[in-house]
């Protein structure tokens, strides 16, 4: 059944989903302000440093924001299936509101970037509980036939927030200073937690309250999540595809940021412009797929998107100016939105509710371990090879992988 226009927007009439949706608009807007604040700290600490030698610092910022996923996500998934998902979202919002205020204290006023890494690690440790709780919570708020619409609107929310937040953040950091971006992010977390407080639902519909020591159950339940992925062919293929995509993303995310801010010398305002282009592509992709994508096979959509992403990576390798780069970034945003909506919806549809938190948490580990590994590799490759050559390598690798899957499927159909 197609996700018709009325379904796409009628889901906002659901008061519980609307409260979550509004909270995320504000919170994600603030996150993008803080992201630009981190770029401002990066530029401050690499003033007078060459592009190649500045890559490791940017790499470290991304690395310490991803490392908590590998440490805490297994625990998070197990507890999310037992705790109230609503309360988990509220507590982590307020916790991050306090932590984010420490970033300017250490990154600007103490001048020791190592303390910033610690705070980033703590903030994203809290996010490890928030993200899978939110993904697992949405199906508790909407009907099954509204899932695609709800996921599309959630993705659109994230992209609108990214466009507005990064554009505003680029201006704020460049003209008004870095500290203000973190203060506004803290306020946004408070507003998000307050909005989610209006969600009226009694815990998880099938939440478990075992008296067993939960710490002893962490390993068992995490293994169950991985086992479910391994035994379900669709989710296993999804996990492999997402691993490959996040490997490419880990490299590209670091290197595009360095290319724009240092390579082209455009700073935070230039990065804001690129983010607007990326966000516009993602919003359009979300709308198009949300309206017309329900009749398409989701695994085919993901593989087709990987082929298109490979072509776009090749265009980034040839970027000589900001205008050329903006076109490639827009197309990548369009493709990425479609892939992520298809992947998220596929996983929600075929995973039982009592396993959903663990499966989402397990997928988070898989994709973020890939992202983390290749973020680190970006710091190594970026100091030894031209950025254009690395982008060409990403494009060729995606084309070979996705093209191979397409060829194998074609042969199986003929056979």
Structure overview:
With about 425 residues, this protein is mostly helical. It has a single domain (about 15-200, about 215-415), classed as MFS general substrate transporter like domains (Growth Hormone, Chain: A). The protein is built from 15 helices and no strands. It has helices at about 5-10, 15-45, 50-80, 85-100, 100-110, 115-140, 145-175, 180-195, 215-230, 235-265, 265-290, 300-315, 320-350, 355-380, 385-415. Helix 3 packs across helix 9, helix 9 crosses helix 10 (about 235-265) and helix 12 runs antiparallel to helix 13. The longest helix is centred in the N-terminal third of the chain and has 31 residues, at about 15-45. The radius of gyration is 21 Å and the shape is globular. The mean pLDDT is about 80.
Short summary of the structure?
By secondary structure, the protein is mainly alpha-helical. It has 15 helices and no strands.
Tag the structure with descriptive keywords:
mainly alpha, Growth Hormone, Chain: A, 415 residues
Rounded mean pLDDT score: 80
Total helices: the number is: 15
Largest sheet features:
none
Number of strands: 0
Broad CATH class: Mainly Alpha
CATH topology: Growth Hormone, Chain: A
Low-confidence stretches: none
**Structural domain tally:** 1
Using the 3D structure, state the CATH architecture: Up-down Bundle
Percent of residues in helices: over 70%
SSE arrangement, N to C: HHHHHHHHHHHHHHH
* Range of strand content: under 5%
Q: Please identify which CATH superfamily we are dealing with.
A: MFS general substrate transporter like domains
Cα radius of gyration in angstroms: 21 Å
Backbone structural class: mainly alpha
């Amino acid at each position: 059944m197609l996700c018709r226009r009325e379904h796409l927007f009628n889901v906002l009439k659901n008061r519980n989903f609307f409260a979550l949706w509004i909270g995320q608009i504000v919170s994600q807007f603030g996150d993008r302000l803080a992201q630009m604040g981190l770029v401002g700290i990066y530029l401050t600490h690499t003033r007078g440093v060459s592009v190649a030698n500045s890559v490791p610092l940017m790499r470290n910022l991304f690395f310490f924001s991803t490392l908590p996923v590998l440490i805490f996500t297994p625990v998070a998934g197990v507890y999310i299936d037992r705790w109230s998902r609503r309360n988990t979202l509220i507590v982590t919002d307020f916790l991050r509101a306090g932590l984010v205020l420490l970033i300017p204290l250490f990154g600007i006023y103490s001048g020791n970037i190592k303390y910033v890494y610690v705070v980033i690690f703590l903030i994203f440790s809290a996010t490890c509980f928030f993200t899978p709780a939110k993904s697992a919570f949405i199906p508790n708020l909407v009907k099954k036939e509204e899932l695609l619409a709800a996921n599309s609107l959630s993705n659109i929310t994230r992209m609108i927030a990214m466009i507005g937040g990064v554009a505003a953040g680029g201006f704020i950091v460049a003209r008004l200073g870095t500290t203000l971006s973190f203060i506004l992010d803290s306020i946004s977390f408070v507003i998000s937690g307050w909005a989610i407080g209006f969600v009226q639902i009694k815990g998880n519909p099938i939440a478990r309250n075992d008296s067993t020591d939960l710490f002893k159950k962490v390993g068992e339940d995490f293994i169950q999540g991985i086992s479910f992925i391994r035994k379900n062919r669709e989710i296993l293929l999804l996990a492999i595809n997402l691993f490959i995509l996040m490997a490419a993303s880990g490299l590209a995310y670091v290197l595009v940021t360095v290319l724009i801010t240092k390579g082209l010398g455009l700073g935070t305002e230039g990065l804001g412009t690129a983010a607007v282009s990326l966000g516009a592509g993602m919003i359009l992709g979300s709308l198009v797929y949300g309206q017309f994508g329900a009749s398409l096979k989701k695994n085919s959509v993901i593989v087709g998107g990987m082929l298109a992403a490979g072509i776009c990576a090749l265009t980034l390798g040839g970027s000589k100016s900001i205008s050329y780069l903006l076109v490639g970034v827009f197309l990548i945003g369009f493709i990425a939105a479609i892939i992520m909506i298809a992947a998220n919806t596929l996983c929600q549809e075929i995973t039982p509710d009592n396993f959903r938190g663990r499966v989402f948490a397990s997928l988070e580990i898989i994709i973020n371990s890939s992202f983390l590994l290749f973020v680190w590799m970006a710091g190594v490759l970026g100091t030894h090879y031209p950025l254009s050559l690395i982008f060409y390598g990403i494009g060729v690798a995606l084309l070979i992988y996705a093209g191979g899957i397409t060829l194998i499927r074609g042969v199986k159909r003929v056979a």
